Protein backbone atom coordinates (compact mmCIF):
# COMPACT_ATOMS: atom_id res chain seq x y z
CA UNK A 1 0.00 0.00 0.00
CA UNK A 2 1.21 3.48 -0.82
CA UNK A 3 2.44 5.22 2.28
CA UNK A 4 1.42 8.78 3.11
CA UNK A 5 3.38 11.23 5.27
CA UNK A 6 1.09 13.96 6.59
CA UNK A 7 2.94 17.13 7.48
CA UNK A 8 1.81 19.87 9.79
CA UNK A 9 2.64 23.24 8.18
CA UNK A 10 3.65 26.03 10.60
CA UNK A 11 6.66 24.95 12.64
CA UNK A 12 7.10 21.62 10.83
CA UNK A 13 7.39 22.13 7.06
CA UNK A 14 7.94 25.87 7.08
CA UNK A 15 9.44 28.37 9.50
CA UNK A 16 6.58 30.84 9.19
CA UNK A 17 6.77 32.41 12.67
CA UNK A 18 8.77 35.46 11.49
CA UNK A 19 6.01 36.44 9.01
CA UNK A 20 3.23 35.59 11.50
CA UNK A 21 5.08 37.70 14.10
CA UNK A 22 5.33 40.68 11.75
CA UNK A 23 1.69 40.50 10.63
CA UNK A 24 0.39 40.03 14.17
CA UNK A 25 2.37 42.98 15.50
CA UNK A 26 1.05 45.21 12.70
CA UNK A 27 -2.50 44.39 13.82
CA UNK A 28 -1.67 45.08 17.48
CA UNK A 29 0.31 48.26 16.94
CA UNK A 30 -2.42 49.68 14.67
CA UNK A 31 -4.73 49.35 17.68
CA UNK A 32 -2.29 50.96 20.08
CA UNK A 33 -1.33 47.62 21.71
CA UNK A 34 2.24 46.59 22.54
CA UNK A 35 3.88 44.13 20.10
CA UNK A 36 5.19 40.68 21.10
CA UNK A 37 8.68 39.28 20.61
CA UNK A 38 9.23 36.26 18.35
CA UNK A 39 9.46 33.58 21.08
CA UNK A 40 6.15 34.78 22.54
CA UNK A 41 4.49 34.48 19.14
CA UNK A 42 5.94 30.98 18.57
CA UNK A 43 4.35 29.91 21.85
CA UNK A 44 0.94 31.19 20.68
CA UNK A 45 0.95 29.36 17.29
CA UNK A 46 -0.72 25.99 16.88
CA UNK A 47 -4.49 26.40 17.19
CA UNK A 48 -5.15 28.48 14.09
CA UNK A 49 -5.31 32.19 13.33
CA UNK A 50 -8.36 33.01 15.43
CA UNK A 51 -6.95 31.47 18.60
CA UNK A 52 -3.60 33.16 17.93
CA UNK A 53 -5.34 36.54 17.89
CA UNK A 54 -7.46 35.69 20.93
CA UNK A 55 -4.26 34.86 22.83
CA UNK A 56 -2.48 37.98 21.61
CA UNK A 57 -5.35 40.32 22.47
CA UNK A 58 -5.97 38.51 25.76
CA UNK A 59 -2.33 38.93 26.73
CA UNK A 60 -2.80 42.68 26.35
CA UNK A 61 -5.99 42.67 28.41
CA UNK A 62 -8.16 43.23 25.35
CA UNK A 63 -11.10 41.30 23.94
CA UNK A 64 -10.61 39.67 20.54
CA UNK A 65 -12.14 41.59 17.63
CA UNK A 66 -13.38 39.67 14.59
CA UNK A 67 -12.34 42.58 12.35
CA UNK A 68 -8.73 42.09 13.46
CA UNK A 69 -8.80 38.51 12.20
CA UNK A 70 -9.81 39.71 8.73
CA UNK A 71 -6.99 42.26 8.71
CA UNK A 72 -4.51 39.63 9.92
CA UNK A 73 -5.52 37.03 7.31
CA UNK A 74 -5.45 39.66 4.55
CA UNK A 75 -1.84 40.56 5.44
CA UNK A 76 0.36 39.48 2.55
CA UNK A 77 2.94 38.02 4.91
CA UNK A 78 0.48 35.30 5.94
CA UNK A 79 0.02 33.94 2.43
CA UNK A 80 3.11 35.16 0.53
CA UNK A 81 6.37 33.99 1.99
CA UNK A 82 8.49 37.03 2.75
CA UNK A 83 10.51 35.82 5.74
CA UNK A 84 9.05 32.28 5.59
CA UNK A 85 11.05 29.36 4.20
CA UNK A 86 11.00 25.58 4.51
CA UNK A 87 13.11 24.50 7.47
CA UNK A 88 16.66 23.56 6.49
CA UNK A 89 16.76 19.93 5.42
CA UNK A 90 13.05 19.63 4.58
CA UNK A 91 13.56 19.57 0.79
CA UNK A 92 16.22 16.81 0.77
CA UNK A 93 14.23 14.80 3.34
CA UNK A 94 11.15 14.98 1.10
CA UNK A 95 13.25 13.95 -1.88
CA UNK A 96 14.51 10.82 -0.15
CA UNK A 97 11.06 9.99 1.23
CA UNK A 98 9.58 10.34 -2.27
CA UNK A 99 12.29 8.03 -3.61
CA UNK A 100 11.28 5.49 -0.98
CA UNK A 101 7.69 5.69 -2.27
CA UNK A 102 6.08 8.07 0.22
CA UNK A 103 3.40 10.50 -0.88
CA UNK A 104 2.67 13.70 1.04
CA UNK A 105 -0.24 15.69 2.45
CA UNK A 106 -0.53 18.76 4.69
CA UNK A 107 -2.85 18.93 7.71
CA UNK A 108 -2.68 22.42 9.21
CA UNK A 109 -4.77 24.56 11.53
CA UNK A 110 -3.90 27.55 9.34
CA UNK A 111 -6.95 28.34 7.17
CA UNK A 112 -6.80 26.50 3.84
CA UNK A 113 -6.64 29.59 1.60
CA UNK A 114 -3.54 31.10 3.19
CA UNK A 115 -1.99 27.63 3.56
CA UNK A 116 -2.37 26.89 -0.17
CA UNK A 117 -1.16 30.36 -1.16
CA UNK A 118 1.86 30.09 1.14
CA UNK A 119 2.87 26.68 -0.24
CA UNK A 120 2.38 27.93 -3.80
CA UNK A 121 4.52 31.01 -3.12
CA UNK A 122 7.29 28.66 -1.97
CA UNK A 123 6.92 26.48 -5.06
CA UNK A 124 5.78 23.54 -2.91
CA UNK A 125 2.07 23.32 -3.74
CA UNK A 126 2.49 20.54 -6.29
CA UNK A 127 4.14 18.18 -3.81
CA UNK A 128 0.99 17.44 -1.77
CA UNK A 129 -1.83 15.07 -2.64
CA UNK A 130 -4.11 17.05 -0.27
CA UNK A 131 -3.97 20.19 1.85
CA UNK A 132 -6.41 20.12 4.78
CA UNK A 133 -6.69 23.52 6.46
CA UNK A 134 -8.16 24.55 9.78
CA UNK A 135 -11.40 25.57 8.05
CA UNK A 136 -11.54 22.79 5.42
CA UNK A 137 -13.64 20.41 7.50
CA UNK A 138 -16.10 20.82 10.39
CA UNK A 139 -13.32 19.98 12.87
CA UNK A 140 -9.63 20.74 13.23
CA UNK A 141 -6.65 19.33 15.13
CA UNK A 142 -6.54 17.99 17.82
CA UNK A 143 -9.78 16.42 16.53
CA UNK A 144 -8.70 13.27 14.65
CA UNK A 145 -11.44 13.96 12.10
CA UNK A 146 -9.27 16.69 10.56
CA UNK A 147 -6.41 14.26 9.99
CA UNK A 148 -8.66 11.43 8.79
CA UNK A 149 -10.43 13.76 6.31
CA UNK A 150 -7.07 14.98 5.00
CA UNK A 151 -5.85 11.39 4.53
CA UNK A 152 -9.08 10.50 2.71
CA UNK A 153 -8.74 13.59 0.48
CA UNK A 154 -5.22 12.42 -0.41
CA UNK A 155 -6.55 8.99 -1.35
CA UNK A 156 -4.57 7.46 1.51
CA UNK A 157 -5.36 4.99 4.27
CA UNK A 158 -4.84 5.68 7.99
CA UNK A 159 -3.15 2.28 8.31
CA UNK A 160 -0.43 3.39 5.88
CA UNK A 161 -0.02 6.97 7.10
CA UNK A 162 2.29 8.77 9.52
CA UNK A 163 1.81 12.29 10.90
CA UNK A 164 4.70 14.65 11.56
CA UNK A 165 4.11 17.75 13.66
CA UNK A 166 5.51 20.14 16.24
CA UNK A 167 2.53 20.57 18.57
CA UNK A 168 0.48 18.49 20.98
CA UNK A 169 -2.46 19.06 18.62
CA UNK A 170 -0.61 17.02 15.98
CA UNK A 171 0.30 14.23 18.41
CA UNK A 172 -3.25 14.05 19.79
CA UNK A 173 -4.94 14.14 16.38
CA UNK A 174 -2.73 11.23 15.27
CA UNK A 175 -3.35 9.27 18.48
CA UNK A 176 -7.10 9.75 18.10
CA UNK A 177 -6.94 8.65 14.47
CA UNK A 178 -4.93 5.56 15.42
CA UNK A 179 -1.77 6.41 13.53
CA UNK A 180 1.78 7.18 14.64
CA UNK A 181 3.15 10.70 14.92
CA UNK A 182 6.76 11.89 14.68
CA UNK A 183 7.43 14.99 16.76
CA UNK A 184 9.45 17.68 14.95
CA UNK A 185 11.98 18.99 17.47
CA UNK A 186 12.94 21.88 15.16
CA UNK A 187 9.46 23.44 15.47
CA UNK A 188 7.73 25.72 17.93
CA UNK A 189 6.37 23.27 20.51
CA UNK A 190 8.36 22.35 23.63
CA UNK A 191 9.47 18.69 23.67
CA UNK A 192 6.95 17.81 26.40
CA UNK A 193 4.32 18.19 23.69
CA UNK A 194 5.63 14.99 22.09
CA UNK A 195 3.77 13.07 24.83
CA UNK A 196 5.88 9.95 24.14
CA UNK A 197 5.90 10.19 20.32
CA UNK A 198 9.25 9.48 18.65
CA UNK A 199 11.20 12.73 18.26
CA UNK A 200 13.00 13.72 15.06
CA UNK A 201 15.89 16.03 15.91
CA UNK A 202 16.16 17.19 12.29
CA UNK A 203 14.28 16.61 9.01
CA UNK A 204 17.06 14.24 7.94
CA UNK A 205 15.75 11.82 10.61
CA UNK A 206 12.34 11.56 8.93
CA UNK A 207 13.05 8.86 6.30
CA UNK A 208 14.45 6.48 8.93
CA UNK A 209 11.76 7.14 11.54
CA UNK A 210 8.90 6.99 9.05
CA UNK A 211 10.20 3.70 7.63
CA UNK A 212 10.48 2.25 11.14
CA UNK A 213 6.84 3.16 11.86
CA UNK A 214 5.43 1.92 8.53
CA UNK A 215 8.03 -0.48 7.15
O1 LIG B 1 -1.81 28.35 12.29
C1 LIG B 1 -1.55 27.78 13.38
O2 LIG B 1 -1.78 28.25 14.50
C2 LIG B 1 -0.96 26.41 13.36
O3 LIG B 1 -0.72 25.91 12.10
P1 LIG B 1 -0.12 24.42 12.00
O4 LIG B 1 -1.28 23.53 12.35
O5 LIG B 1 0.30 24.36 10.56
O6 LIG B 1 1.01 24.35 12.95
MG1 LIG C 1 2.73 23.41 13.77
- CATH architecture grouping of the largest domain: 3-Layer(aba) Sandwich
Rg estimate, integer Å? 17 Å
Put simply, the count of helices is 10
User: Helix fraction?
Assistant: 40-55%
Which outline best applies? globular
Q: Which class do the helix and strand fractions yield?
A: alpha/beta
**CATH homologous superfamily designation of the largest domain:** HAD superfamily/HAD-like
- Low-pLDDT regions: none
When the domains are counted, the total is: 2
What gap, in angstroms, lies between the N and C termini?
11 Å
- What hetero molecules are in the model? 2-phosphoglycolic acid, magnesium ion
CATH class of the largest domain: Alpha Beta
Task: Provide the succession of SSEs.
Answer: EEHHHHHEHEHEHEHEEH
CATH topology of the largest domain: Rossmann fold
Annotation, overall tally of beta strands: 8
Order of strands, main sheet, comes to 5-4-1-6-7-8
Strand content is: 5-15%
Task: Tell me about this structure.
InterPro entries: HAD-like_hydrolase_sf (IPR050155), HAD-like_sf (IPR036412), HAD_sf (IPR023214), PGP-like_dom2 (IPR023198). Belongs to the HAD-like hydrolase superfamily. CbbY/CbbZ/Gph/YieH family. With 215 residues, this protein is α/β, with parallel strands linked by helices. It has 2 domains: 4-15 and 84-213, HAD superfamily/HAD-like (Rossmann fold); 17-79, Putative phosphatase, domain 2 (DNA polymerase, domain 1, Orthogonal Bundle), CATH 1.10.150. Helix content is 43%, strand content 12%. It contains 10 helices and 8 strands. It has helices at residues 17-30, 38-44, 49-59, 66-74, 76-79, 90-99, 112-121, 144-153, 168-177, 206-213, and strands at residues 4-7, 14-15, 85-86, 103-107, 131-132, 161-165, 181-184, 199-200. Strands 5-4-1-6-7-8 form a 6-stranded parallel beta sheet, sandwiched between helices. It has a two-stranded antiparallel sheet with strand order 2-3. Strand 6, helix 9 (168-177) and strand 7 (181-184) form a beta-alpha-beta unit. Helix 8 crosses helix 9 (168-177). The N and C termini lie close together (11 Å). The mean pLDDT is 97. The structure holds 2-phosphoglycolic acid and magnesium ion. 2-phosphoglycolic acid (PGA) is lined by residues 8-11, 45-49, 52, 108-110, 167.
Amino acid sequence: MERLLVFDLDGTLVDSAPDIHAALNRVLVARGLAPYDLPAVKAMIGDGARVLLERAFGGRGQAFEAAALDVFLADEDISQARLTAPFPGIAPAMDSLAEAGWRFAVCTNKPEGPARALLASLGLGGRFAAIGGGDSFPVRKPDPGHLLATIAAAGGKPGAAVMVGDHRNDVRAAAGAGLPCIFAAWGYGPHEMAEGAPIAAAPSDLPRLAAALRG
